[in-house]
Design a protein that fits this description.
438 residues, alpha+beta, FAD/NAD(P)-binding domain, 7-stranded mixed β-sheet, 18 strands, 38% helix, globular, binds flavin-adenine dinucleotide, FAD-bd, FAD/NAD-bd_sf, monooxygenase activity, FAD-dep_Monooxygenase_BioMet
Length: 438
């Protein structure tokens, strides 16, 4: 009999997992909280390990065709002085692509059930694995409208209430647990009674719902995210006359800037800077312009030429608690839900593709629980290594603020030959399929 999976989240991880499981012969439902499948307005760099996983998922060639193959052009100071040569080795080239294009490729013509916000999950220890949906709940991406901190607090309250109500209610029942009823707001209890909460079951639940994962919060309640100390602006614009042909990185005091060409003759840039959490400006383009005002002319030009509508700001958080396992009976996490890391190494998405490809292969070849145990062995150590390294790297960029430390850091970059950096990167940039290890 065909096995069934519910995938929570239609981001890069959820759509990659849908491909992987369908290839393994599973029947899949993809639930997405937002009202449409959409990407944050930014690019993403895919390294060779991510591309190997995308090949396994059957979309590597489509990505190669649409993306721009960009060689790292080197590391520069904030004034544009070269600190490190670009990399020459073929494997260090990245495929840079707009996230919207990538989501489109991964999704294909797959049906995604939108407006389906998951607020709770249960594993197979007391019945079939399930998720609880809150129909008509606010889109979690509406964080632009409120401060991120408030959105986080609301979401975690919603999840707690959802869990309490799930415990208190059988589908269709009136609330019977008076204490749960008292703690929930009147509106939430009324909504539950009106059938706004629904429970869906499957053989496997996949939490691909990002850093604030509701699946993780329900079943790994102690795992906590942490603020990195840095915020990030990013934007997309049509290429300028001084746009680079490859990927460039600039390092300054407490800040880092990068840019890379992407599909459609566009350039994607990001600027990370030390900042207090939750800070927002009425005009984020102006705020980015001010923060990078004294930087190299090409940095300033690119920010200035960015259309107002295509700039986004996001505080950078990471999953500070290492998870000892990525699975519970009949439930598994992948992508940022499992190992959200800082973007300093540009690997969160690449590792997400590796997760999905690995899970698909293991589910095709083994019974469910055995496959989930093998998934832990394949994924935990590797992803944790990246997570820790990304965090340490942030100390040399956004957390390095004193001029003396900045000079010392720049000196180290200057002395480190590009070849060494490439060799150090070799373990990172290769995904080994579980099949290849047999
Ligand atoms: C500034 C920045 C730059 C980056 N650059 C790179 C890079 O160059 N290369 C790279 O490899 N990685 C990069 N990353 C990391 C990468 O973006 C993430 O690792 C990747 O997007 C994770 O994918 P995901 O599907 O796990 O999570 P997400 O992309 O967050 O997707 C989660 C999905 O789940 C949905 N969802 C959330 N909650 C619920 C719910 N309760 N119910 C139902 N649906 C829900 C969301 O709406 C969303 O669609 C970068 C990250 C940042 C912040």
């Amino acid at each position: 009999m065909t096995q069934t999976a519910i995938i929570v989240g239609a981001g890069l991880g959820g759509l990659a997992a849908a491909r992987a499981l369908e290839t393994a012969g599973w029947h899949v439902r993809v639930l997405e909280a937002a009202l449409e499948v959409r990407a944050m307005g930014a690019g993403i760099s895919i390294t060779s390990n991510g591309l190997e996983a995308l090949d396994e998922l059957g979309v590597g060639d489509a990505v190669r065709e649409r993306a721009v193959k960009a060689r790292p052009e080197g590391v520069f100071t904030d004034q544009g002085t070269r600190l490190q040569q670009g990399f020459a080795h073929e494997s260090s080239a990245v495929h840079a692509i707009h996230r919207g294009t990538l989501l489109e490729i991964l999704r294909g013509d797959r049906e995604v059930e939108t407006g389906m916000r998951v607020v709770g999950a249960a594993d197979a220890s007391s019945g079939r694995p399930s998720v609880t949906i809150e129909h008509g709940a606010a889109d979690p991406d509406s964080r632009d409208a409120r401060s991120e901190r408030q959105a986080r607090a609301d979401r975690s309250l919603g999840i707690k209430v959802g869990r309490r109500l799930q415990r208190a209610l059988e589908p269709g029942d009136e609330p019977i647990d008076r204490r749960a009823e008292r703690r929930a707001t009147k509106q939430q209890v009324r909504s539950a009674a009106e059938g706004r909460f629904e429970t869906l079951e499957a053989d496997l639940i996949i939490g691909a719902d990002g850093i604030d994962s509701a699946v993780r919060k329900a079943l790994w309640p102690k795992a906590a995210t942490d603020y990195s100390g840095a915020t990030c602006w990013y934007g997309v614009l049509q290429a300028e006359s001084d746009s680079p042909a490859g990927a460039r990185q600039y390092l300054g005091r407490g800040a880092e800037f990068g840019m890379v060409p992407i599909d459609g003759g566009r350039v994607y840039w990001w600027g990370m800077a030390h900042a207090r959490m939750g800070g927002h400006a009425p005009d984020e383009l102006e705020a980015a312009r001010e923060r990078f005002d004294a930087w190299a002319p090409e940095v300033r030009d690119h920010i200035a030429a960015t259309p107002q509508a295509s700039i986004t700001r996001r505080d950078l958080h990471w999953l500070a608690t290492p998870l000892k396992t990525f699975h519970r009976p009949g439930v598994v996490l992948l992508g940022d839900a499992a190992h959200a890391m800082l973007p300093t190494l540009g690997q969160g998405g690449n590792l997400t593709f590796e997760d999905a490809a690995t899970l698909g292969i293991l589910l095709a070849d083994h019974p469910l629980e055995q496959a989930l145990r093998a998934y832990d062995s394949e994924r935990i150590r590797r992803t944790d290594r990246f997570k820790q390294l990304s965090h340490r790297l942030a100390h040399t960029t956004t957390e390095t603020r004193s001029p003396v430390l900045v000079a010392a850091r720049n000196g180290v970059y200057n002395l480190m030959p590009a070849m060494l950096a490439e060799i150090a990167g070799d373990w990172m940039l290769h995904w080994r399929s579980p099949r290849a290890k047999r």
